[in-house]
Amino acid sequence: MIKINKNKCDLCGSCVAVCPMDSIEMFETYLKINKNCNECMICVHICPVEALTKEDSDRSNV
């Protein structure tokens, strides 16, 4: 699962522009990743402020 750190995100739109699945929606004050996300990580790598991270979906072994 891709997570957005809303405190770091400056709404530059870089992630929206590179998402091949059109999974990132930009609103006036926040971003939202919808269910079409295939976790390709392009957005994570392109984010200039490192506001996007991949979080393990299985945390039951922690």
Write a concise keyword list for the protein shown above.
two-stranded antiparallel sheet, 16% helix, 2 helices, alpha+beta, 62 residues, single chain, Alpha-Beta Plaits, 4 strands
Instruction: Supply the helix-strand structural class.
Output: alpha+beta
- C-alpha Rg, in Å? 12 Å
Q: Could you state the oligomeric state of the chains shown?
A: single chain
> What is the 3D shape?
globular
- What is the chain-wise order of helices and strands? EHEEHE
Outline the structure in words.
- With about 60 residues, this protein is of the alpha+beta class.
- It has a single domain, classed as Alpha-Beta Plaits (2-Layer Sandwich).
- About 15% of the residues lie in helices and about 20% in strands.
- The protein contains two helices and four strands.
- The strands form two sheets. It has a two-stranded antiparallel ribbon.
- A hairpin with a 4-residue loop joins strand 2 and strand 3.
- The longest helix has 5 residues.
- The chain is globular.
Chain-wise SSE layout:
Blueprint: E1 2-4, H1 14-18, E2 24-26, E3 31-33, H2 42-46, E4 52-54
Antiparallel strand pairs: 1-4, 2-3
Summarize the structure.
Helix content is 16%, strand content 19%.
